[in-house]
Amino acid sequence: MPESSPPGSATGNMLPATISQSRPTKGPYEPPSEALVRTLQTTVRYSGKVWWNEWIGDPFLSKKGTPNGGAKGWLRRKFVAYWWLDNMPGVDISDQDKLWYFDGTKIGGQIYTYVNNSSVRNTGGRDPNGLGASKDEPVIKQRTFGHDFWRREHRDKYDEAVEEWKKKHDGKEPNFGDLRKISFDAFVALPEVEKEPWNAKAKEALEASQSQAGAPLPSSFERAK
Where is the composition biased (Polar residues) (predicted)? Predict the structure, then answer.
């Protein structure tokens, strides 16, 4: 089945060259601790999911196992080139940060799960006018943590704490929960004067996230109806 054209473009395959060769964010790249992308919500809105309905089914399934990252790579390129323009029009960040947002948070996994499950089950996706549409509210962050901001700027100290933890646990690799605790414990051990600026950054990020969450719904929400 020929691939449908994304909104505002001539063809679904005509992606900018720099994006069409994109890979998952790897290596040392991390957005700065004060970067706007770090304040964005990490749950996809209902409208941000039904935006993908046009490509559910054969257009998506046919990309599995293909070069350049398979189906997820294909979603990633559309996410950067087209989805962002419709769903986050007021957020101006670099393509590199958009890729990090897709790969480094829960966003990419949520989109992949929605499109994949809808394709495999042949449901066609959710109804753009369904119950979720009336509740299409952004998820507001309730808490942020100073140790997250400290860790991003002090990777060497954090890595040392991780290595020390592994020694105490016979070389065992820490899971996500362990890593969070290692980060928290290392931060708590700092003098109060050193913790204060990082806690302040966390507070600022929380306020920015709550402000962004109150932004108007994306244009794709109205167009999907």
Answer: 1-24
